[in-house]
Amino acid sequence: MLLTLATFLPLLGMVVVLLLPKDNKNLIRWTATAFAVAAFIPILMITVGYAGGKGIPAPETLRAEAAAVVAAAPAAERGRITALLADARANTPTLREFTPADPKHLSDGDKKSLAAKAEIVALEKAGSYDAWHEAWELTLAAASPISQDIRYMEYGTWIPALNIHYMMGTDGLSMPLIFLTGLLWVLCFVYSFSIENGVKGYFALFLLLQTGLIGVFCALDFFLFYVFWEIVLLPMYFLIGYWGGANRLYAAIKFFIYTLVGSVLMLVAMLALYWKDGFDTFNLLTLTSLSGSFDIGFQTWIFLALFMGFAIKVPVFPFHTWLPDAHVQAPTAVSVVLAGVLLKMGGYGFYRFSYTLAPDAGISEMMVLLIGGLGLINIVYGALCAMAQKDFKSLVAYSSVSHMGFVLLGLAAMTTEGIQGSVLQMFNHGVSSAMMFLLVGVLYERAHHRDLDRFGGIGLQMPYYTGFAIIGFFASLGLPGLNGFISEMLVFMGAFNSETFFAGSSTVFALPRWIVYLALPGVVLTAGYILWTVQRVYMGTAKKEEYKTFPDLNWREVFSLTPLAALCIILGVMPQLVLDPMNATLDHLRAFIVAGGVN
Amino acid sequence: MLEVSLQHYLLVAALLFAAGVGVIISRRNAIAVLCGVELILNAAALNFVAFNRYAAPAGRLDGQVFTIFIIILAAAEAAIALAILLNLFQQTNTVDVDEADTMKE
Amino acid sequence: MQNSIDTARKVVAEGMSGLLPELLLAALVCVLLLADLFLRGVKPRATAWIAVVGFVACGAALVQRYGAHAEIFGWVQSDGPRGMLLNDHFAWFFQMFVLAAALVCVPMAMDHAAFRSRRMGEFYALLAAATLGMFLMASSTNLLMAYLGIEFASMASYLATAIDKRDRAGSEGGLKYVIYGSVASGVMIYGISLLYGMTGSMHYGDIARALQVHAATEGQLMIAAVLIFAGFAYKMAAFPMHFWCPDVYQGAPTPVTAFLSVASKAAGFAAFVRFLAAFTAHDGTFFIGFGDEKVPASFGWPVIIGGAAALSMTVGNLGALWQTNVKRLLAYSSIAQAGYLLMAVAVYAAGKGQPSGGDLAPLIYYFVAYFFMNLGAFHVITVIGSRTGATSVADFAGLGRRAPWMAFGLGLCLLSLLGMPPTGGFVGKLQLLSAAVKHDLLWLAILAGINTAISAFYYFKLLKCMYLDRSDAGVIRSGAANMAVLAVLVAPVLILGLAFSPIADLSRGFGF
């Protein structure tokens, strides 16, 4: 119930906002903010509850649902169904078409399969096939190692004709991102009070965007996930296209088309999985418990198709070119959520889908080198590009490209520290990049330009603002004591250890150490462009008279920046606040991938 | 003495068809194009009659019936085409198909 | 002998009673023409009501016929009756579809400038005639009947396109339509004559039987198949007979365009799928028989249709990119949509005979979604066009503010045509792609995916204009009746995308 509330309260808010009179701007702003806060309450409850070990574990929910399905079947068929479910992994729907290669000399396995086939056919004749199929799905989902850490699960049938379910849940991987979404929306709404044109549309679209994002992080049914994934696209297009800068239309359609290309390939992969061996299921957990048996060719194929979809979102070099355009043109709050949460959809997708549905492909030499190599390019190339920017916002945008490279590097390493660092980096980047975009927005509202070379001496004029700026930029730089340091260090440790860790492994290809050596200069480059920026903008004397008249932060800006600054510091000192709740999830996930799924 | 067989009919029909297609492709005059269509229709009609005589089961007249329909429909189609063409001609004083392209950009 | 004459009488009698909807339509044509003569000066709108009553009566008769499975209107042969028409679930669906489209076009035409004066009655008579032709196409089970149905529907459509005599674009469109249409039907009929020569019959069942025992080479069949396909493709507005589409759609009055893009296309698909079902072996290749031995051909329908599908969507989507006229843009979009729909037919041909194959549900479902999204889009274009004279994409600037509900409706329909969740177009396309993936036409699915991304450019061109371009033009009042039609057309687009389980189940019932 909590997850549904968190997901659909914003949608309700959108409807309410649309019904309000257009001219009463303050009413619209406060109503929208109220809904963002209302959605944040269940999110907080889930976050605190999950960290405290509360919430019903998914396997229990799934088993209960399976039992309910069996109980609803006719009494005569129940025994048959239960018997088939006893060995759910072997008794797949594929058996319906099973014919042994040599009918004269049946092996024991063939005999068992034939017996199961007879049972399935009998069920079909009795009209209980669907019941068995759903119970089978649920039983396998409950048995999946991925599902053991998922809690707060909600399960219901949505479209029986295509076997689509409403299945939501959260674990240590998605929970931090859901929290971040809830938090950023409250902050962004307060910050966005300064929007004056098209207020109604702005807040309505923003609320729709929140529904899409929380849905993406919660959905465990592939179809449901895809629907939320696409829902995110539309409001984003209009938010950039209507409220953006001079070149907004180009940026908006570029963002849209790039993402659409990726998601269409994802769709084909999703359908290929649905039809794989006649499983007929969109249930992600069921598919993960079967993915170990997919042959490597199919896995590679699936991995690449999904990779395209997620890589464009991250964005991974060479698909990153939409990002600077979108950021530069987007209004401040949109940039904040774009960097803070939307990019994480890609990283989240890698963990939740790519690696669990194609584990063998993920640890193969080709993919490790691909992901690790692209991570390296992202880090170094992003930092170099950031250094060359004259526009403040595009500098921050390229810093995002660079920072998301760490996510890939940690992922490719496949070590405990690497994965922890990688997921933590997603959260930390969400905090620090959101903060940086807010900081740029604050300055832009006063100066009406973002040219780095024309600033200077802001520190003297706006001391409070500069204080926040120093925290945000240094967190992004990776200064010890602030959050960015922890995740980057974990990633480097993990990536460095990969060769040692997997030295004896015949299945896992270890991330070569040379990639790590090449990535290390990225940290120096990052320090370079950030320190240089701080120097150019905040130090020295004011280059223009008008800078001396800039007022310092107002209450809305302080309200938006304070929680983020606090998170930067707190997580720099006590990273275990985020790491502890997600450790178990990540450990199990890692073990699952390294073992090549369940066999 | 040459016996006239199915092949001969088919050959004539094929030539008619080819001639019709040739006219349609090469002429831009709408009336000429319609003449080309007539050639194609007649090629088909000839085929039907010949096949009915040589290939169809005894006692069945499907091909002959189809031919009568072709003749009727060809007349109806020509009437409609000419009516529309006349209307266009009154507006533009041309029957050239290529001239009727004011909508392209 | 006496016995067989009795049987023949019985067949004809059953034929007449089973033909009630068609007879009603024929009567409606006559009534409308007469009413137009007498009421033209007195009550010009009365013909609209007559048309509505006639279509509803036909619909009632059609509902009565639901569940029938009868081959009617034919003759008797020693091994059983041969019909011209086969009334079954498949035909019923497409007949209902065409009738509903005609019914929707009645209020659309009332609102359109071209019919406001005196041509309304004539137009409705032509609409009813075209509907009748499409009824026959959907249930034809004989190549002669299919051909007659196509010609009947075409001739009424040619005239409807050029109905406004003062409008040059309409005349131009009409001329192109009739000229290319004659060429297409000529080519098709030549193909039919070849097939007739190979099989000695034009009845689908007889063709299928004959192809199993007669010797016909793959090359011969190939030529006949491609020629006949050209004729059907003309009605479907699919590659290679798509080039008439932009001019005709742009030149015709918008209600006619709407009718052509939905009903005509559906009838073309219905007739083609019927023909295809008879023509293919169980593995989707041609039937080729030498004596008792059946030899599967190496090259079959999935390749021909799949190729036409791929080229249709690519040509349509690329052609649409540079269009500035809204109707022309939607014409190219409709070519692309024909490509998506052909994909379902290719999958049908590929899956025929396999377990859980031969499924027409994706085609049926996509057509249901297509009905609402395309008619919805054309409805808005008619309403806005008749009030502001808007024809180009730029004329729709600021529509989001000037007519918010109309803009919302059009926007939703465009998103659905693009295939974005949560709309019916997405679920339809999902099922099409899903079927293609299932039957190993992966290349086609991926191509369709890439095409979807391309099509976003031009659908968003219109969306961008409506919502992101600013305009100072005044608010447009659309009228309550038009709002009601909009709601009827657009609400299902959302329902088909969110709560579509019953419809997806239903769509499985309309196969063969």
Could you explain how this protein is built, in words?
The complex is a heterotrimer of chains A (599), B (105) and C (512). Chain A has helices spanning 2-19, 25-51, 58-72, 75-86, 108-126, 129-143, 175-191, 199-218, 222-243, 248-275, 284-291, 296-313, 322-329, 332-357, 359-362, 365-388, 392-413, 416-447, 458-461, 463-477, 483-501, 513-538, 555-573, 576-594; strands spanning 151-159, 164-170. Chain A is mainly alpha-helical and 599 residues long. Chain A has 3 domains: 1-57 and 171-286, no CATH class; 58-149, no CATH class; 358-584, no CATH class. In chain A, helix 17 (392-413) runs antiparallel to helix 22. The two termini of chain A are 34 Å apart. With 105 residues, chain B is mainly α. Chain B starts with 5 loop residues before the first helix and ends in a 13-residue tail after the last helix. By secondary structure, chain C is mainly alpha-helical. Chain C has a domain at 311-512. Chain C has 20 helices and 6 strands. Chain C has helices at residues 2-18, 20-39, 46-65, 89-110, 120-139, 143-161, 168-199, 204-213, 218-236, 245-251, 254-279, 301-320, 326-351, 361-388, 399-402, 404-418, 424-438, 442-467, 480-498, 501-507; strands at 70-72, 75-77, 80-82, 85-87, 289-290, 293-294. In chain C, the strands form 3 sheets. A two-stranded antiparallel sheet of chain C has the order 1-4. The two termini of chain C are 34 Å apart. Residues 282-298 of chain C have low confidence and may be disordered. Chains in contact: A-C, B-C. At the B-C interface, helix 1, helix 2 and helix 3 of B face helix 6, helix 7 and helix 10 of C.
Topology:
The complex is a heterotrimer of chains A (599), B (105) and C (512).
Chain A: H1 2-19, H2 25-51, H3 58-72, H4 75-86, H5 108-126, H6 129-143, E1 151-159, E2 164-170, H7 175-191, H8 199-218, H9 222-243, H10 248-275, H11 284-291, H12 296-313, H13 322-329, H14 332-357, H15 359-362, H16 365-388, H17 392-413, H18 416-447, H19 458-461, H20 463-477, H21 483-501, H22 513-538, H23 555-573, H24 576-594
Antiparallel strand pairs in A: 1-2
Helix pairs in contact in A: 1-2, 1-8, 2-7, 2-8, 3-6, 4-5, 6-11, 7-8, 7-14, 7-18, 7-23, 8-9, 8-14, 9-10, 10-12, 10-13, 12-14, 13-17, 14-17, 14-18, 16-17, 16-22, 17-18, 17-21, 17-22, 18-20, 18-21, 18-23, 18-24, 20-22, 20-23, 21-23
Chain B: H1 6-26, H2 30-54, H3 62-92
Helix pairs in contact in B: 1-2, 2-3
Chain C: H1 2-18, H2 20-39, H3 46-65, E1 70-72, E2 75-77, E3 80-82, E4 85-87, H4 89-110, H5 120-139, H6 143-161, H7 168-199, H8 204-213, H9 218-236, H10 245-251, H11 254-279, E5 289-290, E6 293-294, H12 301-320, H13 326-351, H14 361-388, H15 399-402, H16 404-418, H17 424-438, H18 442-467, H19 480-498, H20 501-507
Helix pairs in contact in C: 2-3, 2-5, 3-4, 3-5, 4-5, 4-11, 4-14, 5-6, 5-11, 6-7, 6-11, 7-8, 7-9, 7-10, 8-11, 9-11, 10-11, 10-13, 11-13, 11-14, 12-13, 12-18, 13-14, 13-17, 13-18, 14-16, 14-17, 14-19, 16-18, 16-19, 17-18, 17-19
